[in-house]
Amino acid sequence: MLEIKNLHVTVGGKEILHGINLSLDEGQVHAVMGPNGSGKSTLAYVLAGRDGYEVTRGEIVFDGKDLNAMTPEERAHAGVFLAFQYPVEIPGVSGLNFLKSALNEVRKGRGESELDAVEFLKLMRERVSELKMDEALLKRPVNVGFSGGEKKRNEILQMSLLEPRLAVLDETDSGLDIDALRIVAEGVNSLRSPKRAMLVITHYQRLLSYIVPDKVHILAGGKIIAEGGKELALELEEKGYAMFGVTDEAA
Amino acid sequence: MAQATDISRAYADQFARLRATLPGAKDPKLSALREGALARFAKAGVPTPRLEDWKYTRLGALLDGAFEPSSPVVNGIGEDAIDALSPALAGGPRLVFVNGLLRADLCCLDGLPAGMRVESLGAAPADLAEALADRDADALWSLNGALARDGAIVTVAKDAGEGDPLHIVHLARPGAGGEASHTRHMIRIEPGAAATVVESFFGPDGAAYWSNAACLIRVGRDARLRHFRRQQEGAAGLHRTAVRVELDAGAAYESFGLFLGGAIGRDEISVRFAGEGASCTLDGIYLGRGTQHLDCTTRVFHAVPRCTSHETYRGVLDDKAHGVFQGLIRVEKQAQKTDAHMLSKTLLLSDRAAVDAKPELEILADDVQCSHGATTGDLDPASLFFLRSRGLPEARARAMLVEAFITQMVEGIGPDAVRADFTAAASAWSAGGLGGGMTGGRA
Amino acid sequence: MAAMVATIETVRELSEYKHGFVTEIDEERAPKGLNEDIVRFISAKKEEPEWLLEWRLKAFRHWRDRLLPAAEPTWARVSFPPIDFQDSYYFSAPKRKELNSLDEVDPELLATYAKLGIPLKEQEVLAGVKNIAIDAVFDSVSVATTFKKKLQEMGIIFGSFSDAVKEHPELVRKYLGSVVPYTDNFYAALNSAVFSDGSFAYIPPGVRCPMELSTYFRINASNTGQFERTLLIADKGAYVSYLEGCTAPQRDENQLHAAVVELVALDDAEVKYSTVQNWYPGDAEGKGGIYNFVTKRGACKGVNSKISWTQVETGSAITWKYPSCILQGDNSVGEFYSVAITNNHQQADTGTKMVHIGRNTRSTIISKGISAGKSQNTYRGLVRIGPKAEGARNYTQCDSLLMGDTCEAHTTPYIEVKNRSAQVEHEATTSKISEDQLFYLRQRGLDAEDAVSMIVNGFCKQVLQELPMEFAVEAQKLVAISLEGSVG
Q1: Is the complex ipTM higher than 0.90?
Q2: Does the CB of A118 have a partner CB in chain C at under 8 Å?
Q3: C129 — contact with chain A (CB < 8 Å)?
Q4: Which residues of chain C make contact with B367, given a CB cutoff of 8 A?
Q5: What's the CA dihedral at C97, C102, C108, C110 to 10 degrees?
Q6: C417 to chain B, minimum CA–CA distance in Å?
Q7: Of A138, A242, A244, C463, which sits most exposed with the smallest number of CB within 10 A?
Q8: Which residues of chain A register pLDDT less than 70?
Q9: Entry pTM
Q10: Given pLDDT bands bounded at 50, 70 and 90, which one contains residue C127?
Q11: pLDDT beyond 80 at C129
């Protein structure tokens, strides 16, 4: 479903990713682990099409299409969802309004009919209760005044509503205490499906105890330096990034 | 009010009388410069509240007639008297101007920091044209340029380290009254150097006089100047200082003003960013009582990218005092990544005190962070209640909160000697009585 | 929320000024130019009483002798070539007979208003969500007023200014010029001399007006100035919400609109005045468009009275407008909520004055300025606390949003405080739409224009939510449309 081939990415004139290869099939969950500064967030942004993240070589093929030729919203319509490490605050725009607009845009993009207000509210309520969220949060402006946990849960809610083909979770565990982490992870697990793939980007192994990956890629210095099964994450947890001869400023 | 043309003519007569004695009189180019300045003054006249810039400040006696040039005072003032005005700064390097003329016998240049050179306006012919610059000037700056008889030219050599503060003392000794001094200073900090300059203005209560000071400042690449002004003119004094600052790339300029003297005082500061990555801090506090009118006007021009300006002004106004804060931040189209903030807070302590504030933003670039805030009011009732509930009488509680409001500003002053000097001056003001009981005038 | 979705759809449908059509209609004009005879002509046309003609003439002479020699005021941050006041028509009216009912309104006019989305037929209005009584003003003349009878039963007077002069001269004479005297400023003096019509409303003591009163202004004729005059009086304990909308055809020349609005609120009365100003702004190169030089002021004469201005200013080539509150009555309240959007070559210098005279008077100012294209957008506001305004409070917030580096945003507040117990707080910020916000919304599937529209509507929300429901939807659409083409 997703095929990343020899991907080189430059940000602000500086090459950050130096030839990434990664393929991900339907139904699979892969983890990308790496120390700070390894290029993890760059990978997430380049998949979602952020301005300023320039692909200089290589390609990203998603469901047979060249992802790099698409705008961020076209990628969203095609089923790419990025759960942001730092969800953005948008003052004055109510959460409900935002969710409904986004959902209907994505549905239109998929050739589905738009939901009216009643259908939308029904669907939204279902998903909110599944994620054990407080519905009142959605009446507030998008992410404004939310705690770190609330923001992350809001990301997962958006994912459950937009039903992407590919979900990229960028450090979804950062800033969460253990209870919030468990709730978010449960939300993610409930969205695992044979039709959906996930790329879980994380620094630490702890998230992977909850979201168990099919495969683990270790990213360091803009390259994938090791790959393996879920046990690779455990080994990394034990020995640290030093086992790959990599220093980690944050460790 | 006299006819503006009569006033202009009177100043033109003064110029005709004085011109042969003014620094640079023999140089035709400088003469032309002075004549041009006089002509610009004559055209504009003494500013009136009809000008947007002077909307809130009426220059009283200056609109009634021309002020005569002040007379030289050659004796009768001792070094002790100067020391007593600013004990915390005594002993350090200082220049003393009495009635706008340098008194070499009262100066002390022993502790002048290495790399700092000081000359009087008359002794620096090579720098006169630069010091008397009259571009984009207002009428009072031009009048100063036409009539300036003396001033200091301070140059700090490249990469010179910061030494003790240089104290420039201005002392008025008016005769019968109605006299003016027009000092013109220029301070140049060469690349990589650092310096601190303190300007103080003093005068006796009694006769009206006018102190019209102008100061041109240029801070070179990666250089830094800390500039302090203490305005404590006599009760009938009219005071106007205009400071014009230009900052090269990476330069830093920090200004702090304490304004508590004079019948009418206006401190005007304009900062122009000429190179990227420079910063300025403009802070000030004005303390008024009696019928004083104190005006702080600032203008910051962001003409290049990535510069930072921060301004904080506070005012405390008692009795019938009138305070004015005008602040303009202008960000030109090319000045992207500007970070400019301005804050003005005023406390009114009496039912007859008043304040006018005009914090202005003119923004032509889109990628900027700019803000301004202004608050005016009485002391915070919750704080007052808290102190009273702990047993303090109301007057005491109020005084304590006012002092705290002032102290919060003054305690941020960097150089120890300057902080001590300004703290003492502010405390003396507070000790003068708060809460509408005073009728003006100070020691 | 529904409104937002509608917004996005509307943006797709509309990309140009949609009210730019001209109606072919029989009109009657005064000769070109301005002199005492023209003033007399207008007054005679309207069959006015002598006192009103005298008042007009005094205003005209003041304008001609005292104000015109000094030329138009220049303190606002707007620039335009000098106006030749002799090169314009000061009276233009659709020809008509006396109307006995709405059915007699010229069908062309009804069609015009239908095109604008304003139904003048009561049954059509009734089919809507809510009742709105509408006074339609076409080239300075009131052409139709709906629901007049229903309102009359409650003692509410609502209709054209001319009718009010005939039917309630005592009210008009008492209050005309009481808030905005003809000496007030250049354009107010001009308006006082030549105003042709406008709306008048009087709400009697204790009456809460059951429906929104609305005036819809339309400039149609070319080479004419529009000088309407609105006077609204809320007697003791009365309440009224009033809406005003405006459109004009696309013409290459600039047309002057110099209106005066006076509001009076007596003890315990409340007036809510909302404007959606969508005069033709000129084309993308800055050709044509309306000069909107308007004086709007409300006097909170009574204790506990309240006047609230809400404006959404998206149109006009130049806007020069400061809806103000004179807070005379103790405990009176003034509010100003404003969204001003400028695009292309538009210039706006707008804001408010809050003059606190009485004790415990309170005012709130929320101003949101959005500049795009090559436009200039200035907030200019005055907060004045008088010496007797014990306990007065003001809170002001001015936010500017810049879209691109060819536009300008200015904030010029004047804060004058003469009472120590007053508390005045002013905050202003300038920012742009952040890349993060845009990307976040696009990642969720919104295209760039929709994303901008959503962010800008969020930026304006504090103001838009003050509008009556019917206007809020229109305003949100306008916000989106006004910024068309400004997303780079």
Answers
A1: no
A2: no
A3: no
A4: 405, 432
A5: 150
A6: 5
A7: A242
A8: 247-251
A9: 0.85
A10: very low
A11: no
